[in-house]
Design brief:
It contains twelve helices and six strands. By secondary structure, it is an alpha/beta fold. InterPro entries: Cro/C1-type_HTH, DUF5753, Lambda_DNA-bd_dom_sf.
């Protein structure tokens, strides 16, 4: 297990690890609480990653020991708990609090799969396109506030240049290409950027054309983030993010994650392949050129 930020991603890793250890031992939360000398509410809180209270490594150690974890399993969880550092986005007023988990998960995920049906996903937006999006959505925000939001959006894109890389796979509904955001010049630049990013080794972009008709999603924008570690399942993670108006919904139950993964697989099969999608992006860009 690798050390990780003790934000939502780290919390999920700890929560999943402690829950798996308890279930393997066949213990209830009340039994673990009695063994560890803590309250049942504490056990419940440490098994829920959404809780925002500070994680204490001594409590993690006590809970792991109460579940008869091996020294390696216990030390790995404690290592995560001790890495209580905050990312650049924590406390940044330009990053909405409901996006804190998303950015945290991006920093720990090995892959991110996105279905977008209205606008280009944030990780692939140009600055001018992002500015137009924020100006349309943030009607009560000042120009300075909007500029800071755009700065944060662009900074978030640095995740695509990290080592090891994040593999980003995006399925864009053709409606995203046809929606005029910011005017023809902004859209032409955005299409050129998508065409360029689609050729990056860690980015795949497919377009779901109108001609595909009804498709598997049946819903709006969603993101599946994950990291698979077959040698150490406790180091794995998977979560679904569903974008909503001024809030985000996070799903981490195994059945929900499997359902969205399957939906994304169907979308990939219904969309144009990467080569055909590149040609479509080039054609739309050409249509937008003066």
């Amino acid at each position: 297990m690798t050390a990780t930020l003790t934000g939502p991603a780290g919390r999920m890793q700890i929560a999943r690890g402690l829950s798996a250890l308890r279930e393997r031992r066949g213990l209830t939360q009340a039994q673990v609480a009695e063994r560890a000398g803590v309250s049942k509410a504490t056990v419940s809180r440490y098994e829920m990653w959404q809780d925002r209270a500070r994680i204490r490594w001594a409590t993690v150690k006590a809970l792991a020991d109460a579940c008869d974890a091996s020294a390696g399993e216990r030390d790995a969880l404690v290592k995560v708990a001790k890495s209580q550092t905050d990312g650049w986005w924590v406390g940044n007023s330009a990053v909405p609090h409901w996006m804190d988990p998303l950015v945290s998960f991006e920093h720990e995920a090995a892959y991110e799969h996105v279905y977008a049906n209205t606008v280009v996903p944030g990780l692939l937006q140009t600055r001018l396109y992002a500015l137009a999006i924020h100006q349309a959505r943030e009607l009560r925000s000042s120009n300075g506030e909007i500029e800071r939001m755009v700065d944060a959006r662009i900074q978030r894109q640095e995740i695509l240049r990290r080592d090891p890389t994040l593999h980003l796979w995006v399925v864009l509904d053709e409606a995203v290409l046809r929606r005029d955001v910011g005017g023809r010049a902004v859209m032409a630049e955005q299409m050129a950027h998508l065409h360029e990013m689609a050729q990056a080794p860690n980015v795949d972009i497919q377009v779901l054309p109108f001609t595909a008709g009804a498709h598997a999603a049946g819903t709006g924008h969603f993101v599946v983030l994950g990291r698979d570690d077959e040698r150490n399942p406790l180091n794995s993670m998977a979560v679904v993010y569903i974008e909503m108006r001024r809030r985000g919904l996070y799903l981490d139950e195994a059945e929900d994650v499997r359902s969205y993964k399957l939906t994304f697989d169907y979308l990939r099969s219904q969309a144009a392949d990467p080569s055909a999608s590149l040609r479509l992006l080039a054609r739309v860009r050409q249509e937008l050129s003066p």
